[in-house]
Input
Amino acid sequence: MARERFKVLGEGSFFGRMVYDRVIPRDHFLVQLREMIPWQRFTYKMVKYYRGRAKEGRPPYNPAVLLRMLLIAFLYNLSERQTEEMVNYHLPMKYFVGLAVDEQAPDHSTLTAFKARLLANGRLGAFEEMLVEIVRIAQEKGVHFGSIQVMDSVHTVADVNVEKDDKRQKEGKAPRDPNAHWGVKHSRRVKDSNGHTIEQKEYFYGYKAHVSLNSESGMVTSVVVTPGNGHDGHQLPRLLAKDLAQDVPVNIVTADRAYDDSDNHYLLESKGIHSAIRLNDYRTKKKDANKQVWLELQSSPEYKLGLKERYKIERKFGEAKLGHGLRRCRYIGLLRYAIQVFLTVIALNVKRMVRLLLGINFKGRATVAA
Output
C-alpha cells in the first residue's frame, strides 16, 4: 500500500544537528515548542486535504513543516514574505520549521498555496481541527482546564480604505471586501445636554471573532467568526457546543450584556451550567413577573465568581491585537479572516502552553529584530 511522500529535509544531518546543538540554547522558546508538540499528529490530520493524500505526484512539503512556518508568521506578527526571509537567516526559526542549517525556507507563495489547498478541500475544517488538536495536546500534557468559560467578541478592521471603497461602489464597482460589514466597536451610556442617559456607539468596518476562553488555563477553546454586524449573543450556543465536544469541564459561562438573551440563560440551565452573563438593567429594575428570578441569579456565588473572571478575555484580546496583528485583517473575505483568527489563537495557545508547562516566556518580534 502506497505511503505518503514528502520532500526530504536535511535537518537531521550530523552537521546540522551539531550546529543547532552548539548554537541554540536548549531553553529557547522555539526549541521547546518544537519538542513539546507531537507535530506528526497534524501531518495525519492535514494530509487528507492533499490530492491523492500525498501518495502520488511530486512530493510536497510535509504539512506540519508549513504549519510551523505559518506559526512563525503569527507568533512574530510577520508577513509571509518576511517569514521566508527570517527563517532563512534566523537559526532558532529554521530549527523550529525543520530545515537544515544550509537549507532554504519554503517560498512565501508555498504558504499561500498551502492555505488555499486546505480551504479549498476542507473549508475551515482543517483549521478548526488544528485548534481542537492543540487543546487536546494541552490536556494530555497536564494543562489544567478549570470550569469557567469566558465568552466575548473581538473586532478586526477590514483591510479596506473605506473612503475609496465608498467611491468605488458609487461608481458601480463591487466593494473590495464583499463580506465585511459595519458593526458596533464600543457602546457606552452618557448624559446628553438635557441630562438624559443615552447610548453612544462607536462603529468599525470589518469582522468579529467570537471567542470562548478557559479562565484557569488561559487558553482559547473555541472560535466562531462573523462579519462585523454579527450578534454576539447568537454565537453562544455554537461556542458552547464546541467546548462541550472537547470535554472542557464547563460549569460556569460568563459574558457581557450582549449575551443577555433569555434563550442563552435557558440553554445553560438545560445543560446544568451556571449563567454568569451580566444582566441588563431592565431585568432587575422594572416590574416584571420574572424579576425575582433574575435577582436570585444576580446574587448567586457562581454569578459573582464568573463576572470576576471576565477581565481575562479582554487581556487576551489585547495580546492578540498588540502582539499578533489581530487589530487589522491580513486577508480579504470572511473565510480568509477565519484563517487569520484560527492561526492567531493557536499561536496564543502554544505560547500559553510553553509558559504553563515549562515556565518559558515567549519573547516577541522586537527581541528577534534586535
Notes: The chain has a mean pLDDT of 91.
